[in-house]
TrEMBL record, chains A, B:
Protein name: AcrR family transcriptional regulator
Origin organism lineage: Bacteria, Bacillati, Actinomycetota, Actinomycetes, Kitasatosporales
Keywords carried by this UniProt record: DNA-binding, Transcription, Transcription regulation
Pfam family, one: TetR_C_11
DNA-binding region, residue intervals: 37-56
HTH tetR-type domain mapped to chain residues: 14-74
């Protein structure tokens, strides 16, 4: 429709890029990281493989960008639903337990969504045995969401809800690691009730006595 | 030396079996699960591949048994050193925090030991993308050690050290999942200080106030 060539070609590029991301995520989820190839992604996306080679130096680079795009779309979607974890970070209603339950339940839903879980599982497994890929995975995909927890926990320390003597960067691992553990190793079902229990146990503590105090009621 | 054929042949079998386990663990740690083959294991162990096929139906079966053997040897060694986690389970000195610190520190040492970490990492990664292998991994290798935690936490509930209203099978995940998370994803160094912090945070809780009580000191 436009008389200009540039916007048209840019629209075509956007369409190809989207098709390549979708193909890459679908393939890695279905056949695993090792068996996913640039050729396979090109064929499934309906583009020439030169198109992919022009934009990305390697299979790892395409996949990483496809994941970043997926994460960005999820974040937008979550924000649309007012469900936290978007660019605005973890909600801060002043009730830390409620905010964490909301975010961990949303994480459970994501990990139980095959469209997200398949490719994420494949990339995580590859990162476990390939330190370079693993480091990029952590830097680009994991660390940004870890920072959201650090920010929310620091706010809870400032408001007096969270112990002042703990390191938020360690504390958040008590919240997110159990979910990752269940999900990756498939030990037991990953449910909202589980997310709630993790928040309750982590905030309240497992010990029957508060530190330096009388037995709990 | 023995005039009997049976013991001799059984000693030879033991030697071959040990060589096959060692070769299987070394190879999977060095080249990954996918590139480890029965032929490769046989060549490295100095046995014919028919020897392996006679004893095990598949590569997965050899590796699982090699891991079980490794775990059993570790347990014996730990018991020799009086370091818990052996057949006797997690120590129960009446001081839950001290017992957990001991066990989590020993876990940190194991995960930082390349001889154990390499193959374990390879098998874990494969189990993440192969549900059948993952299920066998959990059943034979993970669940037995999970049961040791359940037993120790139940004892702590009985003695009044641990909240009576928590599920030990969930509570233990706050202790072991953070270590697994750091180790698998290589987010930050896995140290004794980290293990101690996890025990402190999990038992004491992250919250500034004990449940239903006055603010903590």
């Amino acid at each position: 429709m436009s008389p200009h060539k540039a916007p048209d070609s840019s629209r075509r590029s956007d369409r190809s890029r989207r098709a390549i991301y979708d193909a890459a995520l679908a393939l890695v989820g279905e056949t695993g990281y090792a068996r996913t190839t640039i050729e396979g992604i090109a064929a499934r996306a309906g583009v020439g493989k030169q198109t992919i080679y022009r934009w990305w130096p390697s299979k790892a680079a395409v996949l990483m960008e496809a994941f970043l795009d997926l994460a960005a779309r999820q974040a937008e979607e979550a924000e649309g639903e007012g469900e936290g974890e978007g660019e605005g970070g973890i909600p801060d209603t002043g009730d830390l337990a409620a905010d964490l339950r909301l975010v961990l339940r949303a994480t459970v839903d994501e990990l139980n969504d095959p469209a997200i879980a398949g490719p994420t599982r494949a990339l995580t497994a590859e990162g476990i045995v390939d330190p370079d890929l693993g480091a990029r995975f952590v830097e680009h995909l994991l660390d940004p969401s870890i920072q959201l927890y650090v920010t929310r926990l620091r706010a809870a320390q400032a408001s007096g809800e969270l112990r002042a003597d703990i390191d938020p960067r360690i504390a958040l691992e008590l919240l997110i690691a159990p979910l990752t553990h269940r999900w990756l190793l498939r030990t037991l079902p990953l449910t909202h009730a589980y997310a709630d229990a993790i928040v309750d146990y982590a905030l309240g503590g497992l010990s029957a006595e508060p530190r330096g105090g009388a037995p709990r009621p």
